[in-house]
Structures
1.
Amino acid sequence: MSDNGTGCLFRHRADDVLAHAHRRGHDILTSVAGIPADLLDRKHHPCPKCGGTDRFRLIDGDKGAVICNQCFKNNNGDGIAAVAWMLGIDRGEAIDLVGDFLGLTPQNGKVHGQPLDPLDAVCRAKRMPKASAVAYGARVDGGAVVFPSWGPDGESLSDFTIKPTGNDKQRKGMWPKGGKAGIFLPVVEKRPRLPQPGETWLVVEGVKDASALAGLGFLVAGLNTCTMAQRFAKMFRGCDVVLIPDRDVASIDGMDKSARRVYGVASGVSIAALPAEVTPKDGKDTRDILAQADGERLVREAIEKAQPFEVQRPEGGPDNRVSIYDGPKEHEVATEAIKALAGLDGIYQRGGNLVSVVRSPEPPKGIIRPPSTYYISAIDDSGLCDLLSQAARFYQLRTRGDDVVEVDVPPPLRIVKIIHSRRRLPGVPMMEGVVHAPVLMADGGVMTTSGYCRATGLYLAAGCEFPPIAQSPSKADAEAARDLLMETVCDFPFASEAHKAAWLALALTPAARFAFDGPVPLGAFDANVRGSGKSKLADSIGMIHLGDMLPRTAPPTSDEEFRKKVTSVLLAGEQIVLIDNVTGMLGGASLDALLTGTSWSDRILGQSKMTGKLAALTIWYATGNNMIFEADTSRRALTVRLQSQEENPEEREGFRHPNLLAWVKANRGRLATAAVTILRAYHVAGRPKMGLAEWGSFEGWSNLVRNAVVWLGMDDPGATRQEVREQSDREAGVLRQLLAAWESGDPGGFGMTVQEAIGKAASGNELLQAVFAEIGTPGKPPSSRSIGMKLHHLRARVTGGKFFDRRKGVGHSVSWVVETSESQGTTGSKGTKPYSTYAGTRTHAHAHTQAADSSPPSPLSPPAAEPEGTTWKF
């Protein structure tokens, strides 16, 4: 075995390597020594080793002989010497590297001495930093280097394999046959490091350029070809994307297509031009530029000077519209039409639908709101035809005599249908929602400019002037902002300091909604008596963030009804909706799913089309007196309770702000700025944790809004939800117990007065005795008035499919009957359970009445007080 003149054993004989290396000098210089190919044209160039200007050149391409006037004076002889020189190794080691590269069999078929590291060889040949290659998941498998690739949701796809030796295809890199190629991303703990909104990502062709740029400190994604597949575009939502094509025609065209696909998804798209001439093929890539003298500076300058990409509407017919041939390839016609639409202002996509922002008095079905409010409106077939006629000229080819002429035609309806069926509309910007006041974003920035913001997907319809927001507000600034906001509610009788803090949390939520991931709890404005001001308390928040009273909807009577209403609300992009004047038990499958979910999909009312995945960003509030929630809903509610000590609080005088909503509207700019100032100050302070108990499903909201309120020195708003859960459980238990006891005393279902029930309890009905003892005053006999008030309070609240209703009896008497709820929602395809806000259609056990007028009195009228006098006996 030869020692190659070094006294050490090596894998290959020098004579064998030199014989096979003849006429492969160029390959050896580029792949083993790592010398850029553009330096091997026999002209003078900067030296790739010492960097000296005009000192390096190729002498003999067959042998691989090069010279540098600084590094050595004479011709170095061959490619093996060039490898030793460039890599700083001895000639024997260089012979082994070249022999491995040429695929020669080691002496005696066995490997002796130091084995070749495939990762070192590949990184050296491809000019990639080894640490960067490892950061992209590179691993050695069977003598080859394997890189993982990933799908758009971070799922693992096929591996990309590069061999340090073998044929050109193997050394360049190969995908497995039949495999699904993905995108190359940095890997952390065997999982891809996915792009996040607000980050800047470079996009290049292949893992080799991605690794090289990552070595400079950039976040880089490598494509599996020169064009980004449409499915990968969504990965860069909210990111600034810089595309860097190789300097050849195919790569430049591919990156232009990639820009169109990611445009409207990313917050910004730009294309960098590397400093090299464009060639028909095999143009210089990022690694070629980095290999040049001062290459890192050149690449960084190209990235800094990247030009923003904008969809340009090409010159078309005589009226400057795009000309689109209405031919048989409908998918191509639809694609060109979508490109034309992307050139129009005010057209967006949301949940797979084309939409626009309109100002109209027409609210969604089931919603009441002030006129002339901005909201999101879906574009129907007629509207899309109108837009297409503005964006494009459609024509067909017709034969007239011996000539073929272009004939203008209206936008084809079949193309309109195809566009509506597409779930992704490249180039059309995304619409997340409409806001009416400054909002905090996920990166801590504040959106203050009116109109559409591509970076956030939001449309700000301000309606008033807002004072400037400090870049770095202090805690003192936040405390002053807190005091200004609390001035809004200085006249309200909050049940506790925690309930006051809960109002502030709900007042901050609209300004924080786009700064965190995850759902928002239901804001429940509760009171112990009518007229306490709970609706005004909610509307004060609407006046701050919307500039008007809150959009309202009545409590639904079934889960199916509520589900349809939610779909309309989310399609319209309503920012806040108030479920007004809840009188029954609040809860249900759809409400629970909405409050803890992040997206919503359903059939569009009156159409066979689905909405697509809509972000569930609407904030939901509710008002009611002594509200009761179903068990699952109670943990999803943040309650603000008013506790008035007056019998008629609506007649109270002496308010600091007699016309509160007018005062809020006049000071709306300052109040909205105060809300964002608190959130911005908390962000600038580092979002310190306040040691609060976790609130499952609402971690994002709690970590920002709830913590910010406590950071300002106020009570924990979350403390109010424990009261709600205990009250809801207690009330629900009493209702179930009372229904069972009432049925035991009135088995025929004819109805029973309170006095009759007390009499039956005194006569030995143990169920009635037990429930009266539960709801009565300890040590005292049951009061017909207190029991009547309790029944009135629980009237129409459904539990177990049953509820109390009352009938007018003889004279002024009132009888109470247990009835069954029938129309309580649906168990359709979504599997919803009965919804129990209101009792639905009532089915009487018997058609018995005690008077000709059997219609029940108004639910607003008080229960009749019945005379006491029955002796209570156990």
Note: The CA atoms of residues 63 and 642 lie 92 Å apart.
2.
Amino acid sequence: MEGAPARDSKSYSLALRDEIGPVGRTLASHFFEGIRFSREAESELERLSKDGFVVHVMRTTAWVNYLYLAWALVRRGLPPIRAVVNLRRWFTRPWRRAAQRGELEVRLTYARRKSGSALVFLKRSALGTARGRSTKEDPFPALVAFARKSDRPVYLVPELFVWEKSRERLKPAVLDYIFGSPEAPGFLHSLVAFFRNYRRAQFRMGEPLDLRTFVQERPGVPDGQIARKARGALYHHLARQTRAVFGPPPKSADRLIEQALRDRTLNRALNEYAVKSHRRMEAVVSEARRALRSIAARPSATVVGLAMPLLHWVFNRIYDGIEVDEAGLERAMKSAASAPIVLCPSHKSHVDYLVMSFVLWNRGYSVPLVAAGSNLSFFPLGPLFRRGGAFFLRRSFRGEAVYTAAFRAYVKRLVHEGVHQEFFLEGGRSRTGKLLTPKLGLLTWEVDAVLEGASNDIHFVPVAIDYERVVESSSYSEELAGAEKKPENIRALLATPKVLRSNYGRIHLHFDEPVSLVDFMESRGLSPADTSEDGKRGLVRALGNRIIYGISRVSTVTPHALVSAALLAHRGRGVSDAELSHRIGALLRIAEEEGRPISSLLSGAPLTPTTAGPIQDAMSLFVDEEAVRIQEVKGEPMYLVAEERRTELSYYKNTLINLVAPRSLVARALLSTSAATREQVQDAALFLSRLLKRELVYRVGATFDVLFSEALEALRRAGLVEAAQGQVSTAGEAERDSLAFLADLLRDLVEGYLAAALTLKELAQAQGMERRTFIRAAIETGRAEYLAGRIAAPESLSKATMENAVLYLLDQRILIEEGRRLQLGPTALPALEGDQLANRIRSSLNRITSR
């Protein structure tokens, strides 16, 4: 249960016995403790209760709602229910302390005198209707009159107790007219549904309405009219909370497809294509319909419900648990009450597709529709994924005008309906552990949907999904060494037994602040009603960077990442236990200073592998997998990394690279600059920052000058550098070693770019190469440099790093691409003369030993 009780167990037991009868206490002890009641809701109710009189407002009469709320208030030491409106009397008989008869104003006065609260239901269930009926007693005129006379605020608090597994339906089923629907459940419906789903239940609170202020702001308006407005506002808040949990009432895939086909933008695109291709419009529309059928999800609550126990077993089998940022999740889903949300997680594993839906389902939310690559639509999993909420997109839309227009129309329809979505902004999975440059295609269509009026706004939620170990780590290492990516097919499933015999530690989910598109546009001086194509392109690019930065700043620091970083950022053969512990402590201090999430396992844990704890567990795993060897020297352990496993370990090191990036850049610039004026160090850091701009994520909106100054000041506060009168220097030899550690966290990336720069001569001699050939040649160049001892980190020989190095060379016009061949560009000559570019990169790797 989220939200700790506000009273000790003894006083709670006495209060519960005094408040609730034996049947209610039995139900509460067995079923209510695990229901999610957020700390934010508890704090808000406590604040409102101290400030004024609280009237809890729920949508439809339900005995279980009353019982739960009565228990929850007692459990948290909040004012108990002392007045009830529109609950059948015989249901409330076990709780005789609540006034349920007589004039409402008398009941409210009684509740206030007893330092309690009130509960009002807006509708009641009834035989023969699935939507419920109006209550016999309209409490709002009396509430308005009560608020007029009150000397304290009267807060109407819309609340939702979610224990149904499905959302309301557009068209009620036959049984809904007999037993009630999820919107207005009858007694038997509510009882059965609660006992089936209480483990996923949650309590949600909407925006409180200060009725006294509401009345005062409408002088001269009759009480009846004010009552109707207040009632309508509460209905609106409850509807928004319901949509935040479940999304909109579900529509069939076929209906969404037909509505998408009626989209004006789609029909205009199809008509232009028909004219251009000399095809009949009917044939083009048929092609668009086929494309939409291949794209569309066909979500089934039954399939999802059946899959969840299996996922629960699998996750419990291979992971030690899932740590969820509950406050961040609550904040993200709360934002869904005001606009459609798009969850944008990091993408490190195929497990990402499952873990978000698993977490949301088990907390009572509906699962989002997830954009998945068409490579995952293979039989037999493809149909199951589609029924679980996956909609599929091709890896490339090039030359597919009809498919592109159809996919864009489908996304626009999802935004219009307010469906919760999830997609991976990085496109493919990260093979390196670093966050990838955002792919902007799908993000552009989400933005287009709002600009074209499908919704007033949309919220993007950056989510970091971090693993202590990823299932695919060994295959990633092979791909980074140059092996081709293995396609996902039935053969890959045969490896499942091996996976199920392994342990992969913990999964961590953290949620950054939701990014409102409209607010983001306004911050850039743009308006949804008037944005040019150039303005939109810049907007989408900035939005993509903002989301990636959001993921970066909520990425979890794990024990495996700390150990890997401490081991790999080292130029010697082995790392002593004392040095390893010192480095891990330094990284943790940076994480704490930057406010980054840290695995709960590390709280108060020893930082040495020689003492039982998470660091020892991480080191033991690496030793068991023969990635690390331990040798004892003079009674102290030394840790040596197996050269052939460094690439695999670098995956975990890279998950925290953005945490230290600004300090690492400044440290590397300082250590490689012989005459250390501030300007020279800043110039060297700027060169590295531009060189590695596709590898690192910086704070959005901050200039390089600001980031440099902040990093330099952080190093000064840590006692590692001295800066005065325009000069920068290391504080001492020990501090120089600490700076070298920070600098060497980036060494493999810089060495990879050095190998690419050295390959330019080979490309010039060959008079051009295909991009793939150049990348292979760069890896071979790097291998030769490594064997010759001029490159220290074998993990620098990474296909992913070489691909980004090529993009850097293209950006600098050192290379150009004509057709599919790379050629020397207009700025190549200065870069090649005297190996100017390679020497500039090499100089940043050198460590100046004296000033």
Note: The radius of gyration is 31 Å.
3.
Amino acid sequence: MRRISGRERTKPALWATLTATTMLTAIVPAMAQQPADSSQIETIIVTAEKRSEDIQKAPLAIQTLSTQKLEDLHITDFNDYARYFPTLNYTVGGAGGGNAGPGFANISMRGIDSGSDGNHSGPLPTVGVYLDEQPITTIGGTLDMHIYDIDRVEVLSGPQGTLYGASSEAGTIRIITNKPDPSGFSASYDVQGNNVSHGGDGYMGEGFVNVPLADNAAIRIVAWYQHDAGYIDNVEGTRTYPGCPVATCAIPDGVPYVPPGTISNAGLAKKDFNDATTYGARAALKIDLDANWTITPTLMAQWQNTDGVFGYDPTVGYLEVQHYLPEFVHQNWYQAALTVQGKVGDLDLTYSGGHMDWWIHGESDYSDYTYWYDKLFPSSFPQVFTDNHGNYLTAPTQFIFESDHFVKDSQEVRVASPATDRLRFIGGLFYERQQHWILQNYQIAGLATSEAVPGWPDTWWLTDQERVDQDMAAFGDVSFSITPQLILTGGLRLYDYENRLKGFFGFGAGSPYGGSTGQTQCFGPGTFHNDPCTDLDAHAVGTGNTHKINLSYQVDDNRMVYATWSTGFRPGGINRRSDYGSYSPDKLTNYEVGWKTSWLDNSLRFNGDVFWENWDNVQFPFLGENSFTIIQNAGNAVSKGIESNVDWKPISSLTLSAAAAVTDAQLTSNYCGFSNLATQIPISNCPNALPSTDPGADANPPEAPKGTQLPITPKYKGNLTARYDFPLASLAAHVQGSWEAQSSSWSDLRVNASTPPYAGASTANTLVPIRENQPGYGTFDFTTGVQTDAWTVEFFIQNAFDQRVEQYRYAECVAQVCGSESYIVPQRPRLIGIKFGQNF
């Protein structure tokens, strides 16, 4: 793969926004003495601390998008709102790890990202996601729920472990829905049509109705249907597997020659083949039992079907791939929840329980794996297979069939004393159980029954496992007003976790590659899902605590400063391959100073924070030998930076909003590529490191040296939005422009990685460079429209100048092997749309 300079290339426009934010900080005190001549910025009430409070009074780093902002920015899914939170970054997996489509976002905040989370047998996430009171975080990614009739999205930066638990090590996202309202009937709908450059046409319809059932009860029903056009083409072509033409090839059954074989995708070539269709509904019932008690049951379900892949192959062309087998992901999920709120004396009591059920079915082309292992290692790893007649499969193209079932149950009960008390507290108990059935069936059409996994025709490799992650905790926050302005808060969470993985993974006993993995390693009979036997049954348990100490000072009614020392954690776990043992928990320690300020009669708000985070014992999942996921602890890292957001209404008709983050996240110790298997302590002094293919490199270089920038997260990220409202005849009109940009980032934690150590491979036991630079970018969105009290018409353009945005890269097997054919996941090309809506 090409070598990339380590120097960051930052977009000049992004520097302009960061400079403007700094200048604004300097002139705000002077402006505060000027008379205000603009209307105020809306007050946003948040529940980030599990109490209702003005966002300007909440002493933590939190950014929100309100109902109006979500509508103004045409936000319909996770990809949309992630652009407007500079602290938030993500990658996307998919069926077999190769779809990269919607519904599988692996989120990080403040640079706490090792680059490869999201594998079904990997570490738990570092960012928690909540829908109202219930956690919806999953090991495979974040549910990509449709964003409509949403009250707000809250993004809480930094560890939130005391109130939100294990998967909130680096932060928490909270999606808060609009609740049923017994005070009156209301309804609305919107329809939209759009076109994507280089692609096809899309459309969407969505609506809600709120119906009072009595003075104390109401029901709210929301529904949506969205079709997103494709923009990546599967172009016609062929691929020839090299076979094994050398007489000395080490073919397992001793046959000295396997001829080349060619495949074609002529029957599957198609333009715009990565389209997506999403539809679903949400229903909520609210009943006020009396003046003190309310119950709110909700039910939400969504179906999503995607075709093709969402990354293109630059060796084929921009927005083009050459794939040879059908590819799709069909997923559906529902979440049922119940929230009960009431009072017991002066105490507020809240119970929340949720049940989530998520099914995934998909297929992925996996021909890259077959081809590149054949091409690079013909003398030691030829893909040699036969059919039931003894004929050699000269083109053994692989594909993955995936069927996953994820079930999550959560229960929480908590009590809170009155917020007006000088000494006040929140305390509670939490229980969560996640069960994940994982089926990944790697197939080769026509494979001999004797070489397949027993009971699974054509299956070369089978992963059929059940994973259970269980978490119990007791938590509490106590606040004391030392003075009316000075408040000290302490938080503590005591937790107990157990993670278990059981089932079968690997080859059948008759496979020529099954000597060390699969049926030959079984120690018991199959236990579920028609497994041939059991070769995996391991678990990890642990207990511990995480804490928070916060001191806030209310300078006056409009200005507050705070300081926080907090910690977050992520449980340890086990590797499927027993020779790698288990991996240990990692821990995040956060030091943060922040400010919340309002100026000019609340027409200007300027908030921000400075943070330093130590990430100890970093859990690092990566593809090892045979593209098998391994998790190791990669030593320590540090992330430090600044986050800021500004909202300003210089005149009543003009609103300006800006947000930016500067993040410097890097390793503070060498990652050598291995740990002490007995103690699981990462080895940072690399005495046994592999020699490098780079003639200028050290004799024993680490795979990632101390000072390496952590992957995925750019050093600079920001956005700016301007909206102007004005009368047009008898109508209300508006124009809006948004700009979002970031600097470059890296694709992998490792600068170098070892080639697969197959005997006889010419490059075995060496390090090769695999780290690629993902260029920075800047995009613009524009909206204009008119409205009355009853209807709205808007015309909008997203990615107006059709920038070629590279969000991240991936390969279908280890980068050392498949890296010559890596895929670029782009931001969607320019989209032009028109939207009409009515209110009732």
Note: The radius of gyration is 27 Å.
